[in-house]
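User: Here's a protein and a ligand (phosphoribosyl ATP). What would the complex look like?
Assistant: Let me lay out the input and then the predicted complex.
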Amino acid sequence: MNEFENLYLTIKDRKQNPEAGSYTAYLFDKGLEKILKKVGEEACEVVIAAMKDDKSEQVNEVCDLMYHLMVLLAQLDIPLADVCEELGRRSAKTHNLKAERKPIEKL
Ligand SMILES: N=c1c2ncn([C@@H]3O[C@H](COP(=O)(O)OP(=O)(O)OP(=O)(O)O)[C@@H](O)[C@H]3O)c2ncn1[C@@H]1O[C@H](COP(=O)(O)O)[C@@H](O)[C@H]1O
């Protein structure tokens, strides 16, 4: 299991079994509007960090955004696997298109 799957499982568990002191449980308690606000804020913070010359800050901000996006997925009851499958479909499509194009390019 990779870090994304692991984190998503923890997030889903916090939704089903809220723990006192858990920030994730706090977000689910506040609801969709709060989660959307956080996703927007964190996306802006990624943009701001990307304009600075600090890789560590950039990685930290991307992690914050990814975490909040996963909270949003859980709030919407979208399995992480659905996102992975869609990415896989896009990737397969791209590779198939490239494979189809190759013989034409060789002519
Ligand atoms: N990956 C994260 C993670 N990334 C960011 N954050 C929290 O996101 C918040 C972002 O900071 P901000 O200053 O923008 O927000 P804030 O002022 O604290 O909160 P608001 O008042 O804006 O709601 C911080 O409180 C961080 O702790 C996270 N909180 C939890 N996790 C993971 O989620 C899992 C469950 O953790 P708990 O929710 O603590 O049980 C664990 O694996 C954690 O590592």
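Summary: The mean pLDDT is 93.
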